[in-house]
Amino acid sequence: MALSSRDEVAALVGLSRRDAAPGMSASSEHVLQERGFDLVAALFGTPHAAPGALPDAALAMLMHGMILDFVAHRLPGPGSEVLGQEVRFAMDPAVGDKVVVSGTLASRPAEDTAQIVLSVDCARGRLAEGSVLVRLPAEPVTLRPEARPDIILHSHRQLDRLMEGAAHAPAVTAAVAWPCDRDSLLGPLQAMREGGLRPILVGPRAEIEKAAAAAGVSIDGAELREAATPVEAAMEAVKLCRDGAADALMKGSLHTDELMGAVVSREGGLRTARRISHVFAMDVPSYPKALFVTDAAINIAPDLMTKVDIVQNAVDMLRALGNPRPKVAILSAVETVNPKIPGTLDAALLCKMADRGQITGALLDGPLAFDNAISRAAARIKKIVSPVAGDADILMVPDLEAGNMLAKQLSYLANADSAGIVLGAKVPIILTSRADTVASRLASIALARLLAAAKARPA
Predict the structure, then answer these.
(1) Which of 30, 169, 225, 248 has the most crowded Cβ, counting Cβ within 10 A?
(2) 155 near 114, Cβ under 8 Å?
(3) Distances in Å between the alpha carbon of 172 and those of 277, 366, 423, 431?
(4) Apex CA 379: angle with CA 378 and CA 385, to 5°?
(5) Which is it for strands 417-423 and 277-283: parallel, antiparallel or unpaired?
(6) How far apart are CA 281 and CA 270, in angstroms?
(7) Helix, strand, coil content of the chain in percent (nearest 5)
(8) Which regions of the chain are under pLDDT 70?
(9) Whole-prediction pTM
(10) How many other CB atoms are there within 10 angstroms of residue 235's CB atom?
């Protein structure tokens, strides 16, 4: 007798004591995913699941888990009780292995028990083999097929990769406006210690040194420029960037409008022909890649031509980061054009402008509701055929309120981490919230570092 291998659409019925007979066999196969290794890494307290980083005991747990899953769902199936197992490991599993677990009911040591001989193989060879002793139920047990629960590990792998990429880029000089509290000071100082940033701290020396002492760090090695007020600090930091003394501008503990007032000033600011806009780089544990949200911090109610610049700024950034053709979802409450919802009209126009070359370097689609922008399943249900739907890189929101709420919901309800950057000015502007962590500030610095390196490359 051979039990079914992969398809679990039908209910699973386990073998009972009277049904089980030596010679019965079954097999199952699946591809080892990265998150399985992440899970055992988390259980063993290992920082990451990179090759060679997991202890042997963690890999053994992963293999035991596959074997016990086979026993519980395949042979003998639901209702069986594991009494003991003996497994010999021959080779370490790896992400991407297509694993086949095979088992045969070899003997019945007692009326209510059975011994299952198993092997675990992949294309590289045998991973493990052994046997499991189980107690069989008196009557067959049926298990209804249900979706397995999803386990999300909050490792923020996307921002880690961004920071790893920035480690190979040249260090940048950043003018830091008013770094007068712990987190706004620790971020640039830690980046300086790691060799990625040359900070120019702009503000009152006494306040900055007080914040450094409270945080237990030293500002030695960082240049300091005196400024008596946040507005003066913003103006001086902007001047350093405009004069070429700094490659980037970074917000400290002052208010965003104090910094941006100096940036957009017609006399001595950092304006270009492009409208200035903000992008959040979001690392959402449940999404398979970095997700960029724009504009959630600068433009309150952008008109159509402002939205053109917002989209193009974000597209140019992703291209600089190595994505040759980013996918842009123009968000609205619905996925159809409705004249009563102005954002849907703008979405349709933006897509047509991309068709005509007025927006370049990206695939655009919209209007798209949030669900079908990030979920292929939702897009299929709504019969949306699009290369962007369910696979967006950039989420373009209709206005600042929607963007701000979306970004904060991802952070506080979906455990996303983020980096923030302002584009369209003469230099990248590292714009973080006063509530952001040091890690978020470091990720924002890494983003500016990558953009500065891309700008320095010959065309």
Answers:
(1) 248
(2) no
(3) 21, 37, 16, 16
(4) 170
(5) antiparallel
(6) 22
(7) 35, 25, 45
(8) 1-10, 47-51, 146-156, 434-435, 458-459
(9) 0.75
(10) 22
